[in-house]
Amino acid sequence: MRILFFGDVMGKPGRVVLKRKLPELRERLGADMVIANGENASGGVGLTTDVLRELLGMGVDVVTTGNHIWKHREMYSGLEREQRVVRPANYPAGAPGRGMTVVELASGHRVAVLNLQGRTFMDDVDCPFHVADALLKTLPDDVCIRFIDFHAEATSEKKALGWYLDGRISALVGTHTHVQTADPMILPEGTGYLTDAGMCGVEASCLGMDKDVIVTRFLTKLPQRFILAKGDVTVNGVLVEVDPATGKAVHIELVRE
């Protein structure tokens, strides 16, 4: 079976291009399941319940998130209600929502989607390695297709978690940097790996934000009001093909349109 994953959806430009391209990509690539990171889908920072419904309505099966999921407090109750959205599992006990969900596809295959957040250069949340161990132990044997969105800053931390979980998950794909990396691979024990899927948003930008504003911020070190960029839009992601009998990845390729 084939899982199509899209990197951080950046505000309205990212939503518009994803909605426009998703039907054609899903058919052409033969995707059985679509996952997208939506932590920046509302205004470029955070996620609202309305935008969550929009993402699910356009054909995204599961929405993953990251550190910006806490931007809009209205989303806290949405995280509790909606089973198809996950937040990083390694936030301390008591955080709203869930860090893992299991969905059953039309084919009858059950897929576990886990969301984890890195600690290097980010908030000091619980250890993603230990939390991954604990969550994977709760899955029944018949849920052997297991996909992780690792929302992290450091490439070394993403690589390390990929090696640590090799053979126990179907794929680990990184998000958060908004820059698609050129290292899709299948690790020795059958885990598909990509350091970062990139973003869905305006290409001529700084991570989806207006480039002039960001350049001014670097030049002056003064606070600036971030503005979503305008211009030509791109979708970035990855396609992972998994053997449903074993949960092992058999093919992985970049998606960039």
Automatic annotation (TrEMBL):
<feature type="binding site">
    <location>
        <position position="67"/>
    </location>
    <ligand>
        <name>Fe cation 2</name>
    </ligand>
</feature>
<dbReference type="GO" id="GO:0004113">
    <property type="term" value="F:2',3'-cyclic-nucleotide 3'-phosphodiesterase activity"/>
</dbReference>
<feature type="binding site">
    <location>
        <position position="39"/>
    </location>
    <ligand>
        <name>Fe cation 1</name>
    </ligand>
</feature>
<keyword id="KW-0378">Hydrolase</keyword>
<feature type="binding site">
    <location>
        <position position="40"/>
    </location>
    <ligand>
        <name>Fe cation 1</name>
    </ligand>
</feature>
<protein>
    <submittedName>
        <fullName>Metallophosphoesterase</fullName>
    </submittedName>
</protein>
<feature type="binding site">
    <location>
        <position position="176"/>
    </location>
    <ligand>
        <name>Fe cation 2</name>
    </ligand>
</feature>
<feature type="active site" description="Proton donor">
    <location>
        <position position="68"/>
    </location>
</feature>
<comment type="similarity">
    <text>Belongs to the YmdB-like family.</text>
</comment>
<keyword id="KW-0479">Metal-binding</keyword>
<feature type="binding site">
    <location>
        <position position="8"/>
    </location>
    <ligand>
        <name>Fe cation 1</name>
    </ligand>
</feature>
<dbReference type="Pfam" id="PF13277">
    <property type="entry name" value="YmdB"/>
</dbReference>
<dbReference type="InterPro" id="IPR029052">
    <property type="entry name" value="Metallo-depent_PP-like"/>
</dbReference>
<feature type="binding site">
    <location>
        <position position="178"/>
    </location>
    <ligand>
        <name>Fe cation 1</name>
    </ligand>
</feature>
<dbReference type="InterPro" id="IPR005235">
    <property type="entry name" value="YmdB-like"/>
</dbReference>
<feature type="binding site">
    <location>
        <position position="39"/>
    </location>
    <ligand>
        <name>Fe cation 2</name>
    </ligand>
</feature>
<keyword id="KW-0408">Iron</keyword>
<feature type="binding site">
    <location>
        <position position="151"/>
    </location>
    <ligand>
        <name>Fe cation 2</name>
    </ligand>
</feature>
<dbReference type="GO" id="GO:0046872">
    <property type="term" value="F:metal ion binding"/>
</dbReference>
